[in-house]
Amino acid sequence: MMLGFWLCLIPALLFCLHGAKLPEPEVKSEVLYKPFLCHRKTKYGDMLLVHYDGFLESNGTMFHSSRQEGDKHPVWFTLGIREVIKGWDKGLQNMCAGEKRKLTIPPSLAYGKEGKGKIPPESTLIFEIELIEIRNGPRSHESFQEMDLNDDWKLSKSEVKEYLRKEFERHGYPPNDTHHEAMVEDIFKQEDDDKDGYISAREFTYQHDEL
Ligand SMILES: [Ca+2]
Ligand SMILES: [Ca+2]
After folding, report:
1. pLDDT digits (tens, 9 = 90+) for 140-189
2. Nucleotide-binding: present as a keyword of the record (predicted)?
3. Are residues 67 and 86 in the same domain?
4. Distance, CA of 16 to CA of 14 (rounded, Å)
5. How far, in Å, from the CA of 202 to the mean position of ligand 2?
6. Whole-model pTM?
7. Does 37 share its domain with 72?
């Protein structure tokens, strides 16, 4: 009897879950080329260097190619922080350097109702993207570990200050104590969500916008 009860309940539960909101539009992702060796895969917060060609799905027109236009250099961006369209943030995860993907991106994850430049409103876009290089982004766990000098999984104000000092030095700026202290206060105001005086690993890598 109990089993019957649960079986009846399951479709109702599924209905509740799915009925609550419309399904999220998806990015269709096809792998065009996968390298034999893959040392690491992309994740949110990584910096990616890519070459890409973008086409309108409606008529196949190419609207941009990083190889043919501008300075013809590949472009850097950070994955998962909305620096690029949502469709890229979603469609370029778990990717190896050297890999090529074809993404089909619905308008809601691209330029939507407005369109942009050569892209008409409500356009589904097709991108062929080659990932050339992956680097640890400023929000990566690797960066966090580098800053967390005493390995207690939280950043104190002095650890953040030390990091700023080193970064300034590395970029050839003279260290400036008062300036660094003001920067640290600013950083903590924004990043220390629970106001305990430390930036935890979670606070550090947390994305404020849900993807
Ligand atoms: Ca620490
Ligand atoms: Ca905190």
Report:
1. 777 888 899 999 999 999 999 999 888 888 878 887 888 889 989 988 99
2. no
3. yes
4. 5
5. 9
6. 0.63
7. yes
